[in-house]
Amino acid sequence: MKLTPKSAQALTNLRGNRDFQDFWEGVKEYEAEQLQVCVSSEGTHLHRAQGAVKALQNLQEWYAAAPSVLDKFKGT
pLDDT tens-digit profile of 26-46? Predict the structure, then answer.
């Protein structure tokens, strides 16, 4: 998935929203839990946790990059 203008705008709009910040902390906690599963598991559990961690890391990268990506889409 790539950031589209619409999703970059939505992520940018969510900045500063207290409820979203609370949600975002939960996402980070879940990532930490999945990282622990990566360390302590093998087989299917490990592979699922690896996929979850990668997806959560991508979301965090998109959230961080959203304002600059939005500026590029707008041509500023």
Answer: 999 999 999 999 999 999 999
